Amino acid sequence: MHRKGHEGVDHYIGGIEHAILHLLYARFFTKVFRDLGYLDFDEPFEKLLTQGMVLKDGAKMSKSKGNTVDPDAIIEKYGADTARLFILFAAPPTQELEWNDSAVEGAYKFIKRFYDRSSHVNKISAIPYIEHSTLSKEEKFARKKVYEALVRAQDVYSEKYTFNTMIAGVMEAMNALNLQTNRDVWSEGYWILTSIMEPVIPHVCWEISHNFFSLKNLTPQSVLEEVFVEDTIMLGVSINGKSRCEIEVTPDASKESILEAAKEKAQKWLEGKTLVKEILVPKKLVNLVVKD
Hints:
Radius of gyration: 26 Å
Number of helices: 10
Strand content: 15-25%
CATH superfamily of the largest domain: Isoleucyl-tRNA Synthetase, Domain 1
Structural class: alpha/beta
Number of strands: 9
Low-confidence stretches: 1-6
Helix content: 40-55%
Shape: extended
Oligomer: single chain
């Protein structure tokens, strides 16, 4: 929090138990000083975020109960990045957080994988240019998941603070990157992922960025819309309303070709049946109505 001209505090962050009295006092004195002519603004804070409580075994952590967890012990065993990642991944900051030792271990293992897989990255000084149309299906999917994580991060950091959804997106991107071997795609992925994760796990991200990118990627990143253009789409195929299989078609495929592909894929469910009706719900599913 800091003063910003004559506009009060930019952002107030505090525990939910303190919200009522802290806010009451702050607003009361702000309005008193305003009425006395010492201030020219009405509210003490531009934005407010009240944190949820930390629970252990369903009970609120407190010194009086003696059920607290010593962060120094966690940092000594796993490092500060693990503690930060666990806390931000366990729940949004406005909700209650249930302490879970096994989840702390899981956060540590993810960070280790994140660091180890940086071996697939090239040393570069700028984000690589990649000709998207020449990539394989797995490479395109990996780029899509990386940029989806970036879109989530931009939304989270600017407004929502749901860091858990952003971290989940990064984990999905890591899984997708691991399904392909293109070093340029890996390098682009880490250029972006270390940038958006740097506030969450700063020590690991700083080291990776220092080793491969000379810290030049630790700046706001731009979204490439081309990675979200689908070459093919998956349509479900139902027989009398019951889901049976899927077909993969191009976005501009004709109705006739889609229906033909659906009947071919669902042939074993059509044998001995009379096809009564063919229904296409664009970009969603095909329903074939049959009778004995």
